[in-house]
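In the present case, backbone shapes were mapped to integers, as reproduced here:
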Amino acid sequence: MTTPLERNDRYVREFVEALHLCPYARTCRESGKLHRRVLARSEDAPQAMAEIEALPEDSVEVALLIFPDAPTGSEESARQFESFCASLRPRLRHFYCVAFHPDLPRDLLDAHRAVQFIRRSPDPTIQMVRASVLRAVRGPDDGGTRVVDPGTLTLEQLMTIASPLSLADRIAEANLETLRREGPDRLESLLASLRAAR
């Protein structure tokens, strides 16, 4: 049997990083700006979030609150955990948060629905991402003019400029391609093996 941090570490390294599902995960972890806490009770989340928000901005980019004792075993437990996460969002000033849960659905109909499958973590987890980091990654959205020489671009590049996808959309599309290429059944087995160590 492994600890929640060991399971999470395997999930981050063997699933998220190995499949390049988040282009910033490895850099964040290796730079020491990934902060993880294991919480025994959901009631401890507000205090933990407040403590993380009080940390110096350059010390943490992503925080993971891991709840090994939260209910699992059904899609209903996943929905309840997502609702719990949503109830905490108004408390955050400097971070955005999303829920990860082992029972999130496997729905690969489109890129945005596939995100749920990617968020199947070994233990229920709330991911907090610093808002300033997201803004920096997304780049300016100032509506300014970009000058390009269309003769130097491929048709695909021209289409991207004509109808640009947001960073989140590009990552979601790339992740769906990865899931399909690697095989959802194989990845589901990998995720199940990480969870089985509970």
